[in-house]
């Protein structure tokens, strides 16, 4: 494609200045320069790029927020207090605060044998990236925001599960923003699940304050042959001035199993995108999610699932409950490459409106280049089922309570596969709490 | 008493009920029989409060109080219960959760204290045993994957737990085999009481062998056109609806 003639955006110009000031004079400089050049060539994604049509960053990002400084002692103390209030029982905890990995806030004592966690900056400076992770990372090479993330990379975790290790203890990856002053954070974590190994990662994004923020967060995962990886993510309680861009890049080996559940219940603008590729046969991937949106919040779920290998199964199930003037977006693309015969793909996105001021854009797509596959997709937008409501009311359950029961059930379908009981309960409780806050 | 007076109902401009009058006294089992399309199910939905029906005239009085102005949940709390012809499947809502929500919502609406969990469980267990409802069903999502017979038994279990003043049974016998019919009928008969009435809507006399009616009404074209005792149902079984339908049309 010939380069588009593009006027430099104020934010892009500011990012250039910020990058020159930020760029550390260490071994990472060359890598960062290369990434920033890539970003500069493409610029902020705009509505002219189809997959960013509904989340136009050139329109949304008026000014580039400066990279968050290293957290000071008071911020670390505030984070410690917040963290103490919440923990996944039996889990090891990895904390990233304002983009940087904080060993002093992390607790790795529960880590299962065969699992290692190190700082991503250390890991990248001491050796080449694992080939599987490098391949997974490439899935996102068309995304300019990933190049920006690489240029400004502040920190994150390198998580490695040795082959044949069943990590009984989940790893909680907490991404906290201090939210004291307007700032941008750029973190990236890697998860390598060795052959026949297994891991559950509980990712949580939250903010201690309401200052304007841009969080560009990336998770790269390589799941080995016969391995299984469960990824549970919750983006919750970010303020109306938050812009959260979360990308997951994941590559699945033969007979691998991937289960993902994402709960988005937050203000501001959220984009969760996942690139997933099946590179070995007989693997399965289930991607589920719930979005609870109100006010003027905007949440975009974009999935690109590529079946390169034959005999794999993909399932996507996303539920959206929208109130106020919120905007929900679901873009799911399933690509079946030539030769990926016997692919079994099903995608469903369902939305319920609580009021009449909200908007939902549902865009499921199938691109199929193989002839012996079973693929389907569906999308619904609307209100609750009248027959179900009447049935409950005819049993004496008042309208609001009946609606709440049905909405909780609606959301819980996308939560039911979560294997960690405490996380599952918390997600369901959060749905109930959100519904009560919205008069249901 | 449950009394329907001169009820006229339309659906999308179509007249379904045309001046229906009916009384069900406490302690009475009244059966309504009639051919397809006579408006039997419409009558039960209108009494229970379904919104898709337009009542153009008439009243439905529960002990003298017109229920047509009430929400369905209010009618339920006042003691009206509709056993659905097609019980609705509700994925994601465990049957037990639903039962507890409905029992306690009605108690709350009447100003009674909510049942404690142990009391409630005991109550459910007794009812479930009588209706041969497998306790595992109570953990499953409401009506999801239940057989036709299981759904109908679940309806009667709900009626037993909610102890209504009047039970409306809308073709509860449809889709039941003989064993299920016996179980369901026994469940209904166990609830017969001096202060409770039933309106049993059915196509077939067979159900009335199990649930003996005190009075039988024949409905056609939106009205009750003949009433009698249990013998009327037997006569219908022999001669069909033909005579009555012709009468009504005249």
From TrEMBL, chain A:
The residue range of the signal peptide is none
Q: Which superkingdom, per the lineage?
A: Bacteria
Which Pfam family name is an example for this entry? Answer: SufBD_N
| Residue ranges of every copy of the SUF system FeS cluster assembly SufBD core domain listed in the record | 183-410
Q: List, alphabetically, the InterPro entries matched.
A: Fe-S_cluster_assembly_SufBD, SUF_FeS_clus_asmbl_SufBD_core, SUF_FeS_clus_asmbl_SufBD_sf, SUF_FeS_clus_asmbl_SufD, SufBD_N
Q: Which GO terms describe its biological process?
A: iron-sulfur cluster assembly
The UniProt record lists the SUF system FeS cluster assembly SufBD N-terminal domain at 31-172
Q: Give the protein family.
A: Belongs to the iron-sulfur cluster assembly SufBD family.
Protein's UniProt name: Fe-S cluster assembly protein SufD
Q: Which organism is it from?
A: Lichenibacterium minor
UniProtKB/TrEMBL annotation, chain B:
Residue ranges of domain ABC transporter in the record:
2-246
Task: Please indicate which superkingdom the organism of origin belongs to.
Answer: Bacteria
Assigned keywords, A-Z: ATP-binding, Nucleotide-binding
User: Which CDD domains is this protein grouped with?
Assistant: ABC_FeS_Assembly
Q: Does the keyword ATP-binding apply?
A: yes
- The reply on keyword Nucleotide-binding is yes
Pfam families, sorted: ABC_tran
For molecular function, the Gene Ontology terms on record are: ATP binding; ATP hydrolysis activity
Please give the NCBIfam families that the UniProt record associates with this protein.
sufC
PANTHER family under this entry? ABC TRANSPORTER I FAMILY MEMBER 6, CHLOROPLASTIC (PTHR43204:SF1)
Membership in a protein family: Belongs to the ABC transporter superfamily. Ycf16 family.
Please report the name of this protein according to its UniProt entry: Fe-S cluster assembly ATPase SufC
- Gene name, please? sufC
């Amino acid at each position: 494609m010939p380069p588009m003639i593009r006027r430099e955006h104020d934010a892009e110009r500011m990012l250039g200045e910020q990058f020159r000031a930020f760029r550390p004079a260490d071994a990472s400089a060359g890598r960062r320069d290369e990434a920033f050049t890539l970003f500069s060539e493409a610029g902020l994604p705009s509505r002219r790029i189809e997959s960013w049509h509904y989340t136009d960053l050139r329109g949304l990002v008026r000014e580039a927020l400066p990279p968050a400084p290293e957290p000071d002692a008071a911020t670390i103390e505030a984070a410690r207090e917040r963290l103490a209030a919440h923990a996944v029982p039996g889990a090891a905890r990895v904390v990233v605060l304002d983009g940087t990995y904080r060993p002093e806030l992390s607790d790795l004592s529960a880590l299962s044998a065969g699992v290692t966690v190190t700082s991503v900056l250390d890991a990248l400076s001491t050796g080449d990236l694992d080939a599987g992770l490098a391949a997974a990372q490439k899935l996102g090479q068309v995304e300019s925001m990933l190049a920006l993330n690489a240029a400004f990379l502040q920190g994150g975790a390198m998580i490695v599960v040795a082959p044949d290790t069943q990590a009984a203890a989940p790893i909680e990856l907490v991404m906290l923003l201090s939210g004291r002053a307007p700032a941008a954070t750029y973190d990236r974590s890697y998860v390598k699940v060795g052959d026949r190994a297994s891991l559950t990662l509980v990712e949580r994004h939250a903010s201690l304050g309401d200052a304007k923020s841009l969080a560009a967060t990336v998770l790269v995962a390589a799941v080995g042959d016969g391995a299984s990886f469960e990824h549970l993510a919750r983006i919750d309680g970010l303020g109306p001035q938050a812009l959260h861009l979360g990308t997951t890049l994941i590559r699945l080996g033969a007979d691998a199993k991937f289960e993902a559940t994402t709960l988005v219940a937050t203000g501001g603008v959220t984009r969760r995108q996942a690139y997933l590729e099946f590179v070995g046969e007989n693997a399965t991937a289930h991607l589920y999610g719930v979005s609870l949106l109100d006010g003027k919040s905007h949440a975009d779920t974009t999935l690109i699932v590529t079946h390169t290998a034959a005999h794999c199964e993909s399932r996507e199930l996303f539920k959206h409950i929208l109130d106020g003037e919120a905007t929900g977006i679901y873009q799911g693309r399933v690509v079946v490459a030539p030769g990926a015969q016997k692919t079994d793909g099903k995608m469903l996105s369902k939305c319920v409106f609580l009021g009449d001021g909200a908007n939902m854009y549902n865009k499921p797509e199938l691109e199929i280049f193989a002839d012996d596959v079973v693929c389907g997709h569906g999308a619904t937008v609307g209100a609750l089922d009248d027959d179900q409501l009447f049935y409950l009311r005819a049993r004496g359950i008042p309208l609001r309570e009946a609606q709440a029961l049905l909405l909780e059930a609606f959301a819980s379908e996308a939560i039911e596969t979560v294997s960690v009981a405490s996380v599952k309960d918390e997600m369901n409780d959060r749905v109930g709490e959100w519904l009560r806050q919205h008069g249901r | 008493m449950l009394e329907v007076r001169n009820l006229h109902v339309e659906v999308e401009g179509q007249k379904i009920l045309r001046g229906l009058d009916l009384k069900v006294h406490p302690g009475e089992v009244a059966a309504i029989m009639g051919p397809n399309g006579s408006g039997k199910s419409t009558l039960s939905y209108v009494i229970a409060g379904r919104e898709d029906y337009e009542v153009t005239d008439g009243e439905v009085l529960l002990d003298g109080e017109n229920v047509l102005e009430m929400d369905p949940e209010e009618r339920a709390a006042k003691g009206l219960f509709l056993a659905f012809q097609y019980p609705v499947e509700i994925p994601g809502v465990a049957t037990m959760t639903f039962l507890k929500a409905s029992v306690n919502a009605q108690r709350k609406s009447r100003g009674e204290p909510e049942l404690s969990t142990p009391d409630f469980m005991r109550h459910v267990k007794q009812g479930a045993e009588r209706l041969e409802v497998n306790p595992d069903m109570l953990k499953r999502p409401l009506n999801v994957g239940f057989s036709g017979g299981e759904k109908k038994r679940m309806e009667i279990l709900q009626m037993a737990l909610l102890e209504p003043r009047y039970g409306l049974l809308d073709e509860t016998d449809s889709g039941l085999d003989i064993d299920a019919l016996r179980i369901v009928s026994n469940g209904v008969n166990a609830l017969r009481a001096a202060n409770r009435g039933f309106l049993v809507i059915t196509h077939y006399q067979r159900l009335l062998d199990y649930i003996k009616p005190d009075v039988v009404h024949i409905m056609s074209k939106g009205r009750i056109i003949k009433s009698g005792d249990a013998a009327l149902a037997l006569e219908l079984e022999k001669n069909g609806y033909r005579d009555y339908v012709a009468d009504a049309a005249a």
